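ZP: hey, is the iron/sulfur cluster complex queued? I don't see it on the tracker
AM: it wasn't, my bad. submitting now with these inputs:
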Amino acid sequence: MSVINLKASEVQTREARLGSITGFAGTAGELVGCARAGTLKESERSFSQCMGCSSGNAFCQFSMIQDAIVVNHAPVGCAGDFFTFNFVYRVGQMERDLSPVIGRYFSTNIEEQDTIFGATQKLADTIRKAYERVRPNAIFITTSCASGIIGDDVEGVANDLSEELGIPVIACFCEGFKSKIWTTGFDAAYHSIVRKLVKPPEKKSNKVNVINFWGSKIFDELLNPLGYEVDYIVPFSTVAQLEHISEAAATIQICSTLGTYIGAALEQVYGVPEIKSPPAYGIAGTDRWMREIGRVLDSQGEIEEVIAKEHERVLPKLEEYRNKLQGKTAYLTAGAAHGHALIALLQELGMTVQGAAIFHHDPIYDNGDVVSDALAHAVNTYGDVPNYNVCNKQAYELVNILNKVRPDIMIARHGGMTMWGAKLGIPTLLIGDEQLSFGYQGVLNYAERILESLDNKEFVINLAKHSTMPYTKWWLEQDPFSFLRSDLDVKIY
Ligand code: SF4
C-alpha cells in the first residue's frame, strides 16, 4: 500500500510507487502470477515509436472542471492537444445535460530565452490575464518538461497568486519526462486536488463519489433508491463540489487505472471508504461489486433484491447473445484496468479473447488490496488469455500481432488505435463511454454493439482493399516482440 503524503508538492511516479511497467509479453495469467509473486520486471524496448505524456493526462482531468481554468506552463507545442480536450469537454457536457461551453485553457508559451532567464514572470502574468478574462473559481497550473528542466518555482508563484487573487491557484507537477507511464498524470492531478482544494469534512454527507472520465450518468439509478446522491468527479464537477468530496459516504471507481490514487487518498486522509472489488463488468464482477457496495453502504438487503431482479431480467437475454457470439474471436487494445474489465466482459459473452495490447500494468493499486485486480479476476473467473502484451501504443507491435491472429473483431478504447484493425479489414469497435458496458445492462449493451459491428463488415473490407500499410511485408513476418527484451519464451497463438 502506498502512503499518501500531502505535504509533498508532487506525487511519486507509478514506476516508483507501484512498480508499474510498460513492456511485457506472455499470457495474462503469467502477468498476474509475476505481479503477485513480486517478480514483475519491465521488459525494455530497444525501439519505441511513440509515447504519451503525464502532463496531458493531468490536463485532461482539470480541463473539464466547469468553473476552473488551466494554465499549461510549457512551450506552445505542449498545447497541441488542447483542441482534443475541448472537443471531449463539449461533447461530454451535452451528454451530461450541461450547456456546451468552450474549455478555458492557456499556455505560457515558454520560449528559448525563457529557458535561460526563467519563466516565472511569464507564468504570473499569464495567470493574472487569464483571471481577468474568465474570473474562474480556481486556477490549475500544469508543468512541462521545459519548466521542470529549468527549475521554475511554480509552487511559489501559485502560492503568491492564490493570496493576490483570493482563489485557489494550484500547481500540478506532471512533467512528461519523469514517468514512462502517462497515467502518472492522473495521480499528479488528483494529488494537487486533494492537497490544495479538498477541505477537511465538516459533516458526513449522503453523497457517493464516482471517479470517472465522462460518459453517461448510470449510477443515479442504482444509488438514489438507496438514499444516496452521486458526485461524478472530476470531469464536469465544480470547484465547490470538489471541496467537499471528503464528506462522502464512499468512493466508487469506474477504472482503477484512473482513480487508484484519489480513491486511496480520500480513504487514508479523510476516511472515505473505497469500494474494493473488481469493477462491475460481466455478471460475476457486477455481483461482487454490488455486494461490496451493499456492505460499505450498509444496504445488503436492498442490493440482494437488485441482484436477484437483474439476474432474472438479464440472464435469459445474455444467453441469446452468447449463442450468437459463441466461437467468435476478439483482440483488444485499451488502458490497463478498463482493458482487463473488457477481457472479462468478452469472455462473459462466450467469445474467445485471442490477445490484448494493454498500455501499462500496475502490479498493485494504491490501496494495497488485491481484490480490485480486474485482470486477476478475469483470469481466475474465465480462464487465461494468450498473446497478452503490455504495450504503450506501439503500433508496429499491434499491427504485427493483429495480422497474425486475425480476430473476428478488434475492440479499441482509444480513437487512434482503431484504424489499424480497419486497414487490415478487421471489424473494429471503438467505445469511449466506459459506463456503456458497466453493470448488468452493460453486458447486453456491449453484446449488441459487437453484433452490429460484425454485421457491418463491408466498410472495413473495402477500406482494406484501398489502404496501404506503412509496415513492410518483412516486418509483418517477424516476431512482433523482436524489439522487446523479455525473460519469457513468448509464442503467438
Ligand atoms: S510536457 Fe514534455 S512530453 Fe509532455 S508534451 Fe510537453 S514536451 Fe512533450
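AM: back. The pocket of iron/sulfur cluster is lined by residues 53, 55, 74, 78, 144-145, 175-177 (CB under 6 Å).
ZP: great, adding it to the tracker
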